[in-house]
Design a protein that fits this description.
This protein is of the alpha+beta class and 78 residues long. It has two helices and four strands, in the order ββαββα. The N and C termini lie far apart (42 Å).
Length: 78
């Protein structure tokens, strides 16, 4: 359902001297936030409210975090 949301067309990237963040743009950002955090939203403008279950759209798994940490440590050791 959300595979097209992960394309560059819907993503924005912000960087500064301390890091990097990736997020969604516009209306897609609101929809993504509702699903990412499991919030309540309306199905349509005048439709019923629905409690959506939390579904991770973007983020790192524990395995991802370990790979990044290992890579960073190897880089710093070199």
């Amino acid at each position: 359902m959300f595979s097209k949301l992960r394309t560059a067309k819907h993503l924005k990237i912000q960087t500064d001297e301390n890091g990097l963040s990736v997020g969604f743009l516009g209306r897609v950002a609101r929809i993504a936030r509702v699903h990412q955090e499991g919030l309540t939203d309306r199905v349509s403008r005048n439709g019923p409210e629905v409690n959506y279950p939390a579904r991770v759209l973007l983020g790192f798994t524990n395995v991802d975090r370990e790979l990044i940490q290992d890579s960073l440590l190897r880089h710093l050791e070199a």
